Amino acid sequence: MRSLLLSASAVLLLSACAATPTLRGTGDLGLVIERSTGQVAVVSHTIRERLATVPGLGDLSHAHVTYSRDGRYGYVFGRDGGLTKVDLLRARIERRVVQAGNSIGGSISQDGRLVVAQNYEPGGLKVFDADTLEQLSEVPAEYAPGKRSKVVGLADLPGQRFAYALFEAGEIWVTDLSDPRAPKTERYPAGRQPYDALVTPDGRHFIAGLFGEDGLALLDLWHPERGVRKILAGYGKGEEPLPVYKMPHLRGWAVAGGYAWLPAIGRHEVLVVDTRTWQEVARVPVHSQPVFVMARPDGRQVWVNFAFPDNGTVQVIDTEAQRVVDTLKPGRAILHMEFTPRGEAVWLSARDDNKVVVYDTGTRRPLAELPADHPSGIFFTSRAVRIGF
Amino acid sequence: MRSLLLSASAVLLLSACAATPTLRGTGDLGLVIERSTGQVAVVSHTIRERLATVPGLGDLSHAHVTYSRDGRYGYVFGRDGGLTKVDLLRARIERRVVQAGNSIGGSISQDGRLVVAQNYEPGGLKVFDADTLEQLSEVPAEYAPGKRSKVVGLADLPGQRFAYALFEAGEIWVTDLSDPRAPKTERYPAGRQPYDALVTPDGRHFIAGLFGEDGLALLDLWHPERGVRKILAGYGKGEEPLPVYKMPHLRGWAVAGGYAWLPAIGRHEVLVVDTRTWQEVARVPVHSQPVFVMARPDGRQVWVNFAFPDNGTVQVIDTEAQRVVDTLKPGRAILHMEFTPRGEAVWLSARDDNKVVVYDTGTRRPLAELPADHPSGIFFTSRAVRIGF
Ligand code: DHE
Ligand code: DHE
């Protein structure tokens, strides 16, 4: 009997130990969205390997990830309104709620305690406790009685605030969540149909792209009382309206050395804008319609991917020479790119080749390939320590 | 017999499990140097607590820490030449070598594979494998036959390179460690007695402070062939030589919104320099001789501590108003400051009060106090994802 007891406890202990995943740092981990299977891959950018797979995240045909401040948990916002907290160390779902009918992304507060979802349907923000995913409050994007707008371009700001744009309302809103159960919101007229936005790396300038008119809407968050200023009035000038799937993604906008590198809408150009004056200073001709325009962390290179049918090509701009210095063919349907935190490598999703490819940004040669089922977004935990992700 | 065996294995398993530390992310951890006891405290800036103590690091009367790319290991460079790899998760020494007689700090390569120590005695660099601490190579700072210089201001650069200054030689050297066993070094005349240096956050501009003459030496690492340019010729003008312990620390220099905020040498001023022209554009009067001048990550505030006997005071500059907006007394002998990665809080070492104090940067009120034995440097793992730390 005693021997049996001991044996049982030994087995119990053994399985408890076996269930304990390897002890490891989380600073070099990331998640890759696998679009068609509703799962994410946990990866390491040190060993350039796929470590594990976490299934059961719902519709990931479009998704965004934000990270807990310790880098252990990724909050995955799926297209179907699913918000899933993934434990990267145990490679499993920690919690999951379906919080909306249609969601486009989310963000985390400066102190790491609040996770905020931005939704298309019902239009607005929802605020969750980052630990428990308990809903704490809601900001319906009701811009006129009974009228709710889609929310785009959500960005976290210093001071527990969030900025975002309302597509139908043509407004930028700034919500203060210092008291997470009682949001305080300020509204600023922005222009027609803001379709995405970004905040500069210092959290000061919030810029929304406008679909319904030329130019961009700029709000100086150090001086919101001054209201929105229209910049780059010639940004999309003279183009006929373009299908939304060809709209560039603004989150990837690159601010490097005091200049912002922006995808032109529809045109085969990348715009260079002086962030002191917000005037255009140059245009760099590129292969096709840019989607993501991203600066390597040191700002010396800007990488650009393109809209269908040219999405098998990626170009590299030298920011000092202000011209394309390399044209690569990393795979079919390059949907997203993510740099390692200090920029020696870049990871690219090749959706139609079912792989993620890693390039050396110095030699511009492939370093590794990882299998992935229709990969799209790639998100490293280093986002946790940056403003605006 | 069988029962005994099982019992023994159960105990073994039990202790194996017990030895396994809690699974956790490493993105919100840090180390605090405890000067007089040769130990470091492992801390979390989420819960603002001291988690563990790691003793046995030798002489930490001056120390620097750099981090592995996963944020799990801190490499602590002690004054006595000790290089100790500390495992933050297990709170123990992983490896330790005594690699020099007198060392001032170190850094880690862009790919995370090489740890480099900068030494006063024998003057030069030593290159180690980041995993094993095996020495791979050495760059003696021999600037003339038989003459070795102290090395200061080491900074990692993109492309496995490192920049540093040679005090006695009056030179800046850039070493390429692409082949870690065969370093390649370029030398640039810099000016008299560079005593410390920094690199801008993008890894482009390396700036050394000069003790033996007025002004600073600037090397554009995108164009090293252009050589060193002298900037801020009036930087220390008209002052009599000052004791070295009052020299400002340059690593803390703050680049915010395109302006660099620099401690004046000896004078009670902080200088504001335009990073496009490298001209001085303003001077902000402060309480005493500044030591560390550090920008909050969003660039809206710059925090300044001071030389003895005024080291009980800390001032906060509003970077837009370009004036001091707050004067704090966080404790006795404030030696160092470190911001949380997104800037909501700042940690300050109060050596003579044996504590670390945490301030809310918004309200500028204390949030927490942690006991620490004569604390000096505070280093968070978020340094791992930045260039130049
Ligand atoms: C507003 C918006 C954001 C910013 C969210 C935030 O601020 O957190 C965003 C983010 C994103 C992000 C997160 C970027 C980041 O760095 O945070 C990615 C990878 C992404 C990949 C794509 N998006 Fe996205 N995306 C849209 C809108 C947006 N996408 C569209 O309206 C569009 C054009 C059509 C749609 O179906 O919604 C669209 C199609 C795509 C794609 O086809 C992409 C390239 C591949 C895919 O799998 O959907 N979108
Ligand atoms: C060159 C140099 C560096 C940069 C290392 C690097 O690039 O990695 C440095 C870094 C440092 C760093 C790391 C800064 C960082 O953010 O990386 C800290 C906290 C620091 C705290 C101090 N230093 Fe430091 N320090 C000197 C030199 C330097 N200190 C001196 O010459 C001086 C004046 C006299 C001495 O005894 O060496 C000196 C005294 C001090 C102190 O008195 C401080 C304030 C408290 C202490 O415990 O010594 N020094």
TrEMBL record, chains A, B:
Superkingdom: Bacteria
Name this protein carries in UniProt: Protein nirF
Leader sequence residues: 1-18
Pfam families: Cytochrom_D1
Coiled-coil region(s): none
Keywords assigned: Signal
CDD domains assigned to the protein according to its UniProt record, in alphabetical order: 8prop_hemeD1_NirF
